[in-house]
């Protein structure tokens, strides 16, 4: 298939592009490079041993996007572009609504203009909000507690309404848990511009000397060691989930939602200790106040994706830490 990845130069996108191209698909990346850099393109091509198309552009530029979809004869779109820092979304809600919601509507309009109706949308477990029960299954109430989570839920609702109005659409909404890890080659990994928010890239910046230590946001949660617990999913397992969804959508119409998680959770200290074992690095840390908005624990019920898509995670926490360490070492050199 000819597949367009919006935001394909980013963390999830670059790993998904590498996997799809290695699986024989023709991949074209459309990205405004606001949270990624063009140097990643060569490394994706090296992994996939084939040319990956690229157009620099913003998803809100409907005309430019329509032209790329048409010129590249795109069959399906994976929509990954968007702003994704939960805390920042509360400080800059209009920027988040404009990029994430308006951008998604622009993409849908461009797809309609060209007659493309297969779409995989990068959603998030933040749509669930405070757990009524755990693990979260796809029927768990959705009550996001920040603009970022509301953006993701609103785009899902738009896609459900679109599918209800036009039965020709084939849509998969993938609710990611906590993506971590890097490609086994160490050529690509999580490489956010500026100060990261997420745990693993912060650990990476401590190892690389960009940050003096890791602040652990609270150790008084009701968990086995007091620190927050999350469902950490290896980014390559996540990429496989996108490929499995694309294949399944070839023979299924409608709008469908899937959790992409491991079904288990690890604490901050679990991950930190495993990373220290994998890397042989001691990570200086201090416990500070809880981060506003953080939940004590959440993790996925991942049965539906396994039953319907035939997909489940294969990588372990050690795979995550080993691959992250390889990537951090490489990015330290460059
Ligand atoms: C994980 C754990 C923190 C940083 C977010 C988004 C979610 C998704 C993944 C997009 C928590 C602790 C973290 C640090 C710490 N993104 N932590 N010190 O908040 O679970 O999820 O990223 O879809 O939408 O909400 O991820 O990596 O920020 O935090 O102690 O410097 O690590 O308290 O327990 P989070 P995270």
Q: How does this model look, in words?
A:
- 42% of the residues lie in helices and 17% in strands.
- By secondary structure, it is an alpha/beta fold.
- It has a domain at 2-180 and 232-262: 3-Layer(aba) Sandwich (Rossmann fold).
- It has a seven-stranded parallel beta sheet with strand order 3-2-1-4-5-6-11, sandwiched between helices. It has a two-stranded parallel sheet with strand order 7-10. Strands 8-13 form a two-stranded parallel sheet.
- α2 links the parallel β2 and β3 (53-56).
- α1 (11-22) packs across α8 (235-249) and α9 (268-279) crosses α11.
- The chain starts with a strand and ends with a helix.
- 49% of the residues are buried.
- Bound molecules: UDP-4-deoxy-4-formamido-beta-L-arabinopyranose.
- UDP-4-deoxy-4-formamido-beta-L-arabinopyranose binds at residues 84, 86, 124, 126, 176, 178, 197-199, 202, 214-217, 228, 230, 268, 291, 294.
Poorly predicted ranges (pLDDT <50, ≥5 residues)?
none
Named at the architecture level, the CATH assignment of the domain at 2-180 and 232-262 is: 3-Layer(aba) Sandwich
Indicate the CATH topology of the domain at 2-180 and 232-262.
Answer: Rossmann fold
How much strand content do the residues show? 15-25%
Number of E strands: 13
Based on the model shown, name its key terms.
334 residues; alpha/beta; Rossmann fold; two-stranded parallel ribbon; 42% helix; binds UDP-4-deoxy-4-formamido-beta-L-arabinopyranose
Question: Which secondary structure elements does this structure contain, and how are they paired or packed?
Answer:
Blueprint: E1 2-6, H1 11-22, E2 26-31, H2 39-48, E3 53-56, H3 62-71, E4 76-79, H4 86-91, H5 93-114, E5 118-124, H6 147-165, E6 170-176, E7 178-180, H7 199-207, E8 214-217, E9 229-230, E10 232-234, H8 235-249, E11 254-260, E12 266-267, H9 268-279, E13 285-288, H10 303-309, H11 317-333
Parallel strand pairs: 1-2, 1-4, 2-3, 4-5, 5-6, 6-11, 7-10, 8-13
Antiparallel strand pairs: 9-12
Helix pairs in contact: 1-2, 1-8, 3-5, 5-6, 9-11
